[in-house]
């Protein structure tokens, strides 16, 4: 993962509530453990017409949203089954943050493990953003803040460990591996103490 310190981007908006993981990445595309390439299937059943052609009205098919890295979505985003492919698909689509008034716990956990920042803001602020697609936001991971188009700054919750992993660009295993020297020193000290006590 790349370190995530700041995101400055226009928003792409999905106003629907209760967007579940099967809508994010339909089950028929879960036949791979590769993350790359899943973005083309994100929101597949909404992005395509019955004949398989792209729906030009769907936000992710619109030219002005190409390159947007922040999704603003309706309440209860990521509900449904536990599906790590969901954040994989969103990051492969180019997103680095999802903003909603409520984000499902399991999706939130999976997102943080995969370098996607789930941001919960007050519903009145989210409603403003849902009504203004394409505005530019600045997200500061270290300060846990979102700077809104009018200059207001909104804080969001983010636990310290997840924040550290995002800032350093590591997952949980990567974080532990970075502590390998400290772990080895601790083990050597413990062994020395046990030998002293035994003698």
From TrEMBL:
In terms of superkingdom, the source organism counts as Bacteria
Q: What is its EC number?
A: 4.2.1.33
Q: In which pathway does it act?
A: Amino-acid biosynthesis; L-leucine biosynthesis; L-leucine from 3-methyl-2-oxobutanoate: step 2/4
Which Gene3D superfamilies does the UniProt record give?
Answer: Aconitase, domain 4 (3.20.19.10)
Where are the coiled-coil regions? Answer: none
Keyword list, A-Z: Amino-acid biosynthesis, Branched-chain amino acid biosynthesis, Leucine biosynthesis, Lyase
Enzyme class (EC, first level) = lyase
Query: What GO molecular-function term can you cite, just one?
Result: 3-isopropylmalate dehydratase activity
Which reaction does this chain catalyze?
(2R,3S)-3-isopropylmalate = (2S)-2-isopropylmalate
Q: Which NCBIfam families match?
A: leuD, PRK01641.1
**Quaternary structure (record):** Heterodimer of LeuC and LeuD.
Say what the protein does. Catalyzes the isomerization between 2-isopropylmalate and 3-isopropylmalate, via the formation of 2-isopropylmaleate.
Family from the record: Belongs to the LeuD family. LeuD type 1 subfamily.
The UniProt entry, under HAMAP family, shows:
LeuD_type1
Tell me what this protein is called.
3-isopropylmalate dehydratase small subunit
